[in-house]
Structure formats: structure tokens, C-alpha cells
């Protein structure tokens, strides 16, 4: 049994490949139903964000489990293996654990220390727990990773400045226009990313902001919250093209919400138009970028702005990495000790059984003593047994941490006759 991470992320996978393996809500449900039938996967969590599509799993057989996860991606998304094989990221054991900690803390994000990933990370774990796809190993791993991420944010202030993709998008726009305040902006979508973008635009003094969404009620709710935001019917979004200077699009639509042919007949070719597409799958047909006076920017291109913040966060990231190393070692020690925990429990029960049996006989022969004396004898006997087993228990834990837990557990079982103790039973610690 071992921990493995298989998936595709922003570090080596281009956006057109990432969007093809992004799980929609309905797909995620089907994916869980499918993966729960896997032969070599005991536990798993799917992490699907705009920058990554990854599966963290506990595999019965590491090689067969890894192949099963890769084949799942290929079959589930109907991919051609030759087109994605080189993009797969595969991590095992300690490397997989460290990766999970790094993801939770935002150290593996497009922007170091970004805030949104921790919430997405926790939601992914909770979703998996609700579907009984996790057990003690991944529950422990994800809870420890969340605890470490919170500690990093508290002790290093790595996320002191908000650097979500939405914030970067607005900063990116700000670099393109000398006078952002006078510009008119259309925001497509009403999710969290859109709200963050709107708040950043308002903060920078933009006076005219319009929002549109397929469900008009949600857009109306957003305009109620922000006085400067007007609502546009979704069917009228193309009519806004000649009027606005900037479009920020962030929806969960599985297809383009701005299509090339309709766009071409609707926009003003003599006017500069900046479009930021921060959705995955993409909202805007990439060919729109070929039109006169249109500048289209996608997720991957926002990295240039993210790089400006990199230097300021390098030292914080170094401190965060040290914290992660220490906490990863603690988790790995726990994980490596899984085989010895049932044996330690068995030793405790074995010693308790002997003490109780011997005390019963001894105390029955010492009835002439007072209750206080009898209690002292009982405490001394139990304390002595505890001290006698302290060294064996310590050595079992040390052996577990040294990855010799299976061997030492087997020997201890035979030495003490703990035939009912099982490495697969009562795992905990």
C-alpha cells in the first residue's frame, strides 16, 4: 500500500490539454462512481481547479494503481494516449505527500501562496469523504496538510497580498490602460472569481461595470451588492461589445460564451477591446484574438504579472518549505508506523491481561491488608508492567519510522503470541 498522485497541472501541461481534463460538477460525480470500482485504488480524492486536474490516491499496488489512474483519465475524457502521455505527472510516497502539502499551502500554484486553493483543497477532500472514497490515510493526510497551510499563512504572511487569478487579471488590465477609471467593463459570470474581479475594479475607481449571466437573478443579486454594477441580459452580451473597453469572462460553461462568428458581426473594429478569459474550459473562442484591435489574454498569459510578485514571496516560500518538510516527516512517520499500531495495541492488551490475572491471585492472598495498601500494590504492579513494555513499544515505533514496521510486527507477534493482532485491523495512532 502506498500514496500516489497522478494528474496534469499548469507546470507542464498547456491550457488546451488541461481544459480537456477539467471535471464539471456532473462529471465529478460520475468520476467518483467510476473510480470507486477500481481494483487497485483503496482511497482517492480528485482535485480539479483551473490550474490542475489531479487524483491523490492510496494504491494497493503502486504500479498497477498508477496505470489504473492514467487509464481512467484517458477513458473518462476520451483522450488519445499519445496526446497526453507526456503531460502526466506521477508522484509516489514521500514525493506525493510533499506535493499534497505544497498544493494546500499554495506553493504549487500559478501564484505562490494564493488564497483560493486552500478552500478548493478542503472542498475536494470533503466531497470525497461524503462519498466514502477516503479512509484513515487520506483523511489524516488532507487534515494535516490543511493545518500546515494555515500555520504557513499565519507565520510567514505568504498570502498577505491577495494574488488570486482575478486580482492578477485586473492588475494585468491596469498595465494595458493608462487610465483604467474611465474604462467601461463587462464581466461575464457571477462566481467567486467574477466577484473578486469586480471588487478590484471598484477599488481602482472604475465607474461603469456591467455584469451578465445565464441566470439573470444571480446577476441582479450581484448588482444589488455593488451599487456601481449594472445588469445586462445574457442574450444581449454581444450588443455590449461596441460600448465596453474591457471584458472579463469567468463562467463554468462547457462551451464558448463568446463565439467567433457572432463576435465578428457585433464588435467595433475601430475601437480597442481587451478581453481577459479566466475560465477553464475557456469562455472565449481563441480565434477572436485575430480580429482587428482585439487583445485576448488567457490564464497562462497572466503568469507574467504573477512573476512580479514572485521575488517578494521567495523568502516567505523558503520558510514555508521548511515548515512543510517538518510536517511531512511527522505525517510520513505516522504513515510508516501503520503496521505497528495494531501490535502496540496488542501488547497493551497482553500486558493488561497478565497484570489483571496475577493481581487477582495476589490480592486474594493479601486480604488482611488495608484498602490503601492494596491500592498501592495494584498501582505498582501496573506501573511496572508499563515500564517493562515501554522499550519494546519505543523500538516498534522506531522500526515503523525506519520502514521496517512489517518485519518488527511479525517478529513481535510471534514472540508474544499476539496471533489476533493484524496490521490491517485497528489502524490508527
UniProtKB/TrEMBL annotation:
Site (Important for activity): 99
CDD domains for this protein: NAD_bind_Glutamyl_tRNA_reduct
Residue numbers binding NADP(+): 189-194
InterPro entries to which the protein is assigned, alphabetical: 4pyrrol_synth_GluRdtase, 4pyrrol_synth_GluRdtase_dimer, 4pyrrol_synth_GluRdtase_N, GluRdtase_CS, GluRdtase_dimer_dom_sf, GluRdtase_N_sf, NAD(P)-bd_dom_sf, Shikm_DH/Glu-tRNA_Rdtase
Pathway(s) where this gene product acts: Porphyrin-containing compound metabolism; protoporphyrin-IX biosynthesis; 5-aminolevulinate from L-glutamyl-tRNA(Glu): step 1/2
PROSITE patterns on file: GLUTR
Start and end residues of each Glutamyl-tRNA reductase N-terminal domain: 6-156
EC number(s) from the headed UniProt entry: 1.2.1.70
GO biological process, one term: protoporphyrinogen IX biosynthetic process from glutamate
Any GO molecular function: glutamyl-tRNA reductase activity
Catalytic reaction equation(s): (S)-4-amino-5-oxopentanoate + tRNA(Glu) + NADP(+) = L-glutamyl-tRNA(Glu) + NADPH + H(+)
Keyword terms, alphabetized: NADP, Oxidoreductase, Porphyrin biosynthesis
Pfam families: GlutR_dimer (PF00745), GlutR_N (PF05201), Shikimate_DH (PF01488)
UniProt key word Disulfide bond: no
Residues the record marks as active site: 50
Signal peptide: none
Free-text note on domains in this protein's UniProt record: Possesses an unusual extended V-shaped dimeric structure with each monomer consisting of three distinct domains arranged along a curved 'spinal' alpha-helix. The N-terminal catalytic domain specifically recognizes the glutamate moiety of the substrate. The second domain is the NADPH-binding domain, and the third C-terminal domain is responsible for dimerization.
Family: Belongs to the glutamyl-tRNA reductase family.
Additional information: During catalysis, the active site Cys acts as a nucleophile attacking the alpha-carbonyl group of tRNA-bound glutamate with the formation of a thioester intermediate between enzyme and glutamate, and the concomitant release of tRNA(Glu). The thioester intermediate is finally reduced by direct hydride transfer from NADPH, to form the product GSA.
Function: Catalyzes the NADPH-dependent reduction of glutamyl-tRNA(Glu) to glutamate 1-semialdehyde (GSA).
This protein's name: Glutamyl-tRNA reductase
Lineage: Bacteria, Bacillati, Bacillota, Clostridia, Peptostreptococcales
